[in-house]
Amino acid sequence: MQTITGDLIALAQAGRFDMIVHGCNCFHAMGAGIARSIAASFPAALAADQATAYGSRDKLGTLSQAEVRCGNHRLVIVNAYTQFDWKFDGKSPGPLVDYSAVERCFQTIAARYRDARIGYPKIGAGLAGGDWAVLAPIIDRALDGSDHTLVVLPK
Predict the structure, then answer these.
(1) Calpha distance 73→60 (Å, rounded)
(2) pLDDT tens-digit readout, 32-42
(3) Is the pTM of this model over 0.85?
(4) Which residues contact 91 (CB under 8 A, 6 or more apart)?
(5) What is the rounded distance in angstroms from the CA atom of residue 17 to the CA atom of residue 113?
(6) The dihedral of CA 122, 123, 128, 132: what is its sign?
(7) What is the distance of C-alpha 113 from the center of its chain?
(8) Which of 12, 17, 22, 95 could serve as a FRET partner for 41 with CA atoms 20 to 30 Å apart?
C-alpha cells in the first residue's frame, strides 16, 4: 500500500487516480466525512447510492459506482457498502464498520478493476470507528498486485 498526503478528491480530479473508493452506509446518508465531500463534488456518486435499496443489510460488502469526466480523463467513484448504519445506536458494541464487508468490497474491486489506479481514504477508520491496524491489512491483501494508494489529509 502506497501512502501519500493530500486531498483525495483534488488528486482524483487532477488525474492521479482512475478510481476512488470510499465507505458508505446502507441508508443513503452521505452527510459527513469524506462522503459529504464526494457527494458535493460528484453528484453522480450520490445518485448511484440513492439508486440502491434504502436500509438493506444485503448491501453490506457490495458496491455502487458512478463514472464522471474530469477534464480529459474518466474517473470511477465507488461507493463501498462497508457499514450498515451511520450512527451509534448505543446497543451495538464496537465500531460501525463491518470488517468482513470491507474485505468483500475490496475483493470485488480487485477482481473488476485490476489495472486501475485506485485511491482511497482510511475507509472505516474515521466516523465508522474502525481500527486502521485491522483495516489496512484487509485492503492490502485484497488489492495485492494492484496500483492502490491511501491518501491521508495533511495535518
Answers:
(1) 30
(2) 889 999 999 99
(3) yes
(4) none
(5) 12
(6) negative
(7) 14
(8) 95
